[in-house]
């Protein structure tokens, strides 16, 4: 007979118990309703909140609204008696003063974009170095010191494996960038076919000033070579003197024997950055637990969005962000209401619960970054983050499918804790019976969803997470992301799944075992 550990027996018993519905949990889960969700979201995603862009009065109004709701529910204000955790941010307004190639001028936000803040600089050269996929074998002994480098921002094809061609940086490509920077490059021009579409869709946001978390001490200037993401149209202009197209050079670079090539193109790039402080806050509502109160479960969602439409001719001036992430914020308010009523009725959670409204997610996960580095409750005592980002719509891949109104993408549940994954599965099988889609539950997913919402700042510190997401749709980061397009019954059902998962986590005897490793 095989030995069975006490932990395995207790885990099996816990899952067995979860398989039968807890009628107390059912009672309070039923308080999460489509009608109540509509009331919250109709306020949060209204024109009066002006798109809730971080650092604007719209975001401030949203923060005040969430705090007022927390207060109504009787949640404690855990930041020295306040619901607000100040998140010190710096706005880095980057201005590209020049970008010309062979006398032709290219436009920031249309032909290229640059993230980050760098010391003011102007680069003039008549030579650029094409480095293919930037591998060490391709670069070889080529001197890149002070040179502008043209780089294929895609995975290099290997055998029959399908390469990742997304412009979003993978871990391997990030290493390649660091390698090129270590060789003394003055600037890296990262070409990818997807940049043109991204700029056509999101050009305003990528060209807007960058926000960063303000450090307590002065940080040294970023002396690394700046990374410009460029269209293949711009890349073709850069390589025109070779008599070849960028695609032809890329095809040649797919072979292991290809080396660098110097291209005689006259290039001028100038850029400068100005900095100003920005006011922003995370919103925290706290419910103390009972016998396990020193351990904390977090429910998180970001309340910010991308703000007003700068197009003066546009009929719709407000990017309302009803789905992104008004729906998640609404879900948090609904879950908080259910737990608050349970506590009022004498069924409060064993563990403490933090309801966390993050700011600055759209600017680079800034609110959750700041919280994870300056936690109000120790991360060592934080058992899980259940993060909700977009749960009110049907994504591209489910349009027209039979289960289009009964699914949710679950991401990251098993990355750090197989037990957490099993708890999420069991809660769904017991209560909501949604189709849990794990398509994007992969750190190597080309869309990189695992890295693109606030849960990641907890995961990278070793806190297990589950990220709930409905997938991208036509109105993602567009003015059409309106309350009128939200499927409120579906929003409520997805929020119920998060509630039931949280109910189990808040009340079970043991916190989820961490048996995975952080990535990146």
Give a brief outline of the structure.
It contains 14 helices and 19 strands. By secondary structure, it is an alpha/beta fold. It folds into two domains: 31-87 and 280-507, Zn peptidases (Aminopeptidase), CATH 3.40.630; 91-276, Glucose Oxidase, domain 1, CATH 3.50.30.
Can you tell me about this structure?
With 520 residues, this protein is of the alpha/beta class. The chain folds into two domains: 31-87 and 280-507, Aminopeptidase; 91-276, 3-Layer(bba) Sandwich (Glucose Oxidase, domain 1), CATH 3.50.30. The chain has helices at residues 6-19, 23-29, 34-44, 57-72, 136-139, 171-182, 194-206, 232-239, 246-253, 322-344, 366-373, 418-432, 455-459, 488-507; strands at residues 84-86, 89-101, 104-105, 112-114, 121-125, 128-130, 148-152, 187-191, 210-213, 227-230, 261-263, 267-278, 281-287, 292-302, 351-358, 382-388, 407-411, 435-437, 465-469. Strands 1-13-15-14-16-19-17-18 form an eight-stranded mixed beta sheet, with helices on both faces. Helix 12 (418-432) crosses helix 14 (488-507). The longest helix is centred in the middle third of the chain and has 23 residues, at 322-344. The chain starts with 5 loop residues before the first helix and ends in a 13-residue tail after the last helix.
């Amino acid at each position: 007979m095989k030995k069975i550990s006490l932990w395995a027996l207790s885990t099996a018993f816990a899952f067995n118990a979860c398989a039968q519905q807890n009628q107390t949990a059912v009672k309070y889960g039923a308080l999460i309703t489509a009608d109540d969700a509509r009331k919250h979201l109709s306020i949060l995603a209204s024109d009066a909140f002006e798109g809730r862009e971080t650092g604007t009065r719209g975001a401030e109004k949203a923060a005040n609204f969430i705090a007022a709701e927390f207060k109504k529910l009787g949640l404690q204000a855990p930041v020295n008696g306040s619901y607000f955790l100040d998140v010190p941010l710096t706005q880095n307004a980057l201005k590209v003063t020049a970008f010309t190639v062979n006398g032709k001028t290219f436009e920031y936000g249309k032909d290229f974009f640059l993230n980050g803040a760098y010391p003011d600089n102007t680069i003039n050269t008549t030579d650029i170095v094409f480095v293919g996929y930037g591998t060490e074998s391709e670069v070889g002994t080529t001197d890149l010191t002070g040179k502008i480098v043209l780089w294929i921002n895609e995975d290099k094809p290997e055998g029959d494996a399908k390469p990742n061609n997304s412009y979003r940086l993978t871990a391997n490509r990030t290493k390649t960038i660091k390698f090129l920077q270590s060789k003394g490059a003055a600037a890296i021009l990262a070409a990818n076919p997807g940049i043109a579409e991204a700029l056509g869709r999101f050009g305003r946001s990528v060209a807007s000033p960058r926000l960063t978390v303000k450090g307590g001490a002065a940080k040294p200037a970023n002396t690394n070579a700046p990374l410009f993401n460029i269209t293949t149209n711009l890349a073709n202009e850069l390589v025109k003197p070779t008599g070849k197209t960028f695609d032809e050079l890329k095809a040649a670079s797919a072979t292991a024997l290809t080396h660098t090539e110097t291209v005689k193109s006259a290039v001028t790039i100038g850029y400068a950055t100005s900095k100003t402080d920005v006011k922003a806050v995370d919103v925290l509502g706290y419910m103390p637990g009972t016998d396990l109160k020193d351990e904390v479960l977090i429910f998180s969602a970001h309340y910010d969005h991308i703000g007003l439409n700068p197009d003066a001719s546009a009929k719709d001036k407000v990017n309302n962000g009803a789905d992104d992430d008004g729906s998640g914020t609404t879900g948090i308010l609904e879950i908080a209401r259910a737990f608050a009523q349970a506590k009022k009725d004498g069924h409060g959670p064993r563990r403490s619960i933090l309801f966390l409204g993050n700011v600055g997610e759209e600017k680079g996960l800034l609110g959750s970054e700041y919280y994870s580095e300056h936690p109000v409750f120790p991360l060592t005592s934080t058992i899980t983050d259940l993060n909700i980002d977009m749960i009110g719509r049907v994504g591209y891949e489910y349009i027209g499918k039979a289960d289009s109104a009964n699914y949710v993408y679950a991401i990251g549940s098993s990355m750090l804790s197989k037990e957490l994954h099993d708890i999420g599965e069991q809660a769904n099988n017991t209560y909501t019976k949604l189709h849990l889609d794990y398509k994007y539950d992969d750190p190597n997913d080309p869309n990189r969803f695992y890295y693109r919402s606030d849960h990641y700042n907890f995961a990278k510190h070793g806190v297990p997470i589950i990220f709930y997401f409905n997938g991208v749709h036509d109105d993602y980061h567009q003015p059409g992301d309106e309350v009128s397009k939200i499927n409120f019954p579906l929003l409520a059902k997805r929020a119920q799944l998060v509630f039931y998962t949280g109910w189990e986590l808040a009340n079970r005897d043991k916190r989820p075992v961490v048996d995975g490793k952080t990535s990146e």
